Fold:
Amino acid sequence: MYGLVIGFFLLGYSAYCWREQGIHSRYEGWKTREEAPRTFKWLLIFYVFLALFMILSTALFPSKR
Structure:
């Protein structure tokens, strides 16, 4: 259940970052796509992959409770 919620949150956050063309960097704050193109690309790929993994794992392997 938590994986589903967190997965949808990550998908929403990645959509927000794509729409605003920026990403939050840990020690530097908000960076635009032009300021940090590699970080922007790799974090979006990571967020989407992690979100889809969490959503699909919850859907395919539900808890036995």
Notes: Residues 24 and 30 are 4 Å apart (CA to CA). The beta strands are 22-25, 29-32. The helical segments are 2-20, 37-60.
